[in-house]
Specification:
Helices cover about 35% and strands about 25% of the residues. The chain is α/β, with parallel strands linked by helices. The longest helix is centred in the last third of the chain and has 13 residues. It starts with a strand and ends in a 5-residue tail after the last helix. The structure holds S-adenosylmethionine (SAM).
Length: about 280
């Protein structure tokens, strides 16, 4: 038996919106901007898509309603990629509610840092050809969630593939065969040491016509610096902002190579990687 969670009761969202909980996290910015009605209304709509099992089961899972489907996601507590983060909910909601403008049917989509796979599942249910990627240790759970929630429900069966940012990109995702209409990324920027590799990965996967939808949770100053760095290579447009969650949704496209200090050479990549601590 399942029950729908009430507004704000998704455990992560609840935690992120609770000022007391925020105070306990070093470096987390809590914005005193919770009076923003639009923000609250949309966040309420987003979190209302979550439900939890009422019975305790041997595996822990959470439920979500998107694209007219009940999606069950198996989670674990031992790593970042094994729970659904609020940014993923924001991106799923955006994709579902903006199909007229950004139609996913038959589009080539790649998700980086897919974690539990919720965003990839929603993009697949919306009709896209999806490749969900993450670190090797995440792929078992990712594949399980994706198979369970897309089999016999999607026009195109999604693929799961390893993609460690900046690693063997030319071999595993040759530029000549990359043809992605959309790159999706939810909560991939936080205190990890691979920010420059992440930037290289965005650049590698992106063609001139590719649209990136990137949802970013702001926690530390380092993340602001990443946005500045990102803007050197991509035209970035803020599509929506959720101050109560410290989350922003961006749309980005590659800058015209002539208007940017564009990173095509191996020398640039080497320099970028060695300067990653500057971010
Ligand atoms: C905070 S989680 C977000 C997961 C999912 N997108 C969501 O919003 O629920 C960050 C994700 O990035 C992945 N990740 C972290 N470092 C990575 C790297 N170097 N290469 C590829 N993926 C990485 C993690 O495994 C994890 O799935």
């Amino acid at each position: 038996m399942i029950k729908k969670t009430s507004i704000y009761s998704h455990p992560l969202v609840h935690h992120l919106m609770d000022p007391e909980a925020q105070k306990g996290i070093p470096g987390v910015l809590y914005l005193e901007n919770r009076e923003n009605d639009d923000d609250k209304k949309v966040v309420a709509e987003i979190t209302a898509r979550c439900f939890a099992p009422t019975l305790i089961t041997t595996t822990s899972w959470e439920g979500f309603h998107f694209v007219g489907h009940e999606i069950r996601i198996t989670e674990a507590v031992d790593c970042y990629g094994a729970v659904v983060w609020p940014s993923a909910l924001v991106l799923c909601y955006f994709l579902e509610t903006n199909v007229k403008q950004y139609n996913m049917v038959d589009k080539n989509v790649i998700e980086i840092g897919a974690g539990t796979g919720l965003v990839s599942i929603v993009a697949s249910l919306l009709g896209a050809h999806v490749t969900a990627t993450d670190l090797p240790e995440l792929l078992g759970n990712l594949q399980y969630n994706i198979s369970r929630n897309t089999k016999m429900k999607c026009k195109h069966l999604p693929q799961v593939k390893e993609l460690s940012w900046g690693v063997a990109l030319d071999k595993n995702f040759p530029r000549s065969s990359n043809n992605f209409d959309y790159i999706l990324a939810a909560d991939v920027v936080y205190a990890h040491p691979f920010l420059e590799e992440l930037l290289i990965t965005f650049d590698h996967l992106c063609k001139e016509t590719t649209i990136i939808f990137w949802v970013m949770k702001f926690r530390l100053e380092k993340e602001n610096k990443f946005v500045d760095r990102f803007k050197e290579l991509f035209d970035l447009e803020e599509i929506s902002s959720f101050p109560s969650l410290n989350i922003k949704l961006y749309k980005a496209m590659k800058k015209n190579p002539r208007s940017a200090g564009y990173p095509q050479s191996r020398a640039w990549k080497a320099k970028a990687i060695s300067s990653r601590l500057l971010l």
